[in-house]
Amino acid sequence: MAELSPFALRTPGSGQELLASLSRIRRQRPAQVAAALRERRRRPLLSEHGTLFLIAADHPARGVLKAGSKADAMADRGEFLRRLIVALKRPGVDGLLATPDVVEDLALLGVLHDKVVFGSMNRGGLNGSVFELDDRFTAYTAQGIVEAGLDGGKMMVRIHDQDPGTLRTLTSCAQAINELARLQIPAMVEVLAAPHPGLDPTTALMRAVAIVSGLGQTSAWTWLKLPVVEDMERLLTATSLPTVLLGGDPGPAAGSTYRRWAEAMRLPQVMGLVAGRALLYPEHDDVERAVDEAASIIERGKRR
């Protein structure tokens, strides 16, 4: 990979070697980070089939380290990066969704050439905290995404009528959507909903989709990232916006999750998948196999 860019490090084989190499260059030549991003070779946003398959790697920045049955699976940064490199090399993988630290590590390693990269923006709502729904923008800004040469921005909105943090997050996301739209950069908005009195879970999520779809001065550059529910066809009657599927952490229920992905990919709003833990830390621990299975689902679902 070093031949792709004068700024790319040689990619060692182990997580410890990765951390040692990255720490050395960050300590001695921090300007290499920006240089590696400038040198990144870019590609069209969507595949030839109009689909998008991204590997999600923004969980640790929100304090989420659990994957499957292991509470600290993503705590080892070197192993996390090693698994990401394996996933990003697989055929059919279009790119990455991550926070600046992960994007920059992988840019230094030279593995983001010809990949789509979305920057994760609001990670302040730490998992399990009392302020979880007050999801502040603590990572990328719209301007930061442009300066880093990235392809889109991702944010999260969780709708809970009894938590005032929801309103603050809605306001911040609306502003970010406006800023990205002015720059003609897609805003990928992950939508989640708390239980709502009198509404079944799918209807509560449809309500959340309606609320989020109306954020900002225009929805022209807004995409949705939605969890895969049993009644996906009904859920997607709530929007005309382009939609990617949320991978989640299925653990032992991966077979059921893959079945739902395959069914959802047939729906006209769905254009792809953004998955992290399900593919990086599968129960069988074979990253290549998990990623290849997901890529085949996307290819079959949208082939014309």
pLDDT < 50 stretches: 1-10
Biggest sheet architecture = 8 strands, parallel, barrel
How much beta, percentage-wise? Answer: 15-25%
- Straight-line N-to-C gap: 34 Å
Would you identify the CATH H-level superfamily?
Answer: Aldolase class I
Q: Tell me the radius of gyration.
A: 18 Å
Strand order of the biggest β-sheet = 1-2-3-4-5-6-7-8
CATH C-level category:
Alpha Beta
Note the run of SSEs as H and E: HHEHEHEHEHEHEHEHEHH
If you consult CATH, what is the topology?
TIM Barrel
Number of strands: 8
The number of domains: 1
Helix content class? 25-40%
Give the second-level CATH assignment, the architecture.
Alpha-Beta Barrel
* Shape summary: globular
Give the helix tally. 11
Q: What is the mean pLDDT?
A: 93
* Structural class estimated from helices and strands: alpha/beta
How are the SSEs placed, and which strands pair?
Elements: H1 15-28, H2 32-38, E1 52-57, H3 77-88, E2 95-98, H4 100-108, E3 116-120, H5 142-147, E4 152-159, H6 165-182, E5 187-193, H7 201-213, E6 222-227, H8 232-235, E7 243-246, H9 254-264, E8 270-275, H10 277-280, H11 287-302
Parallel strand pairs: 1-2, 1-8, 2-3, 3-4, 4-5, 5-6, 6-7, 7-8
Helix pairs in contact: 1-3, 2-4, 9-11
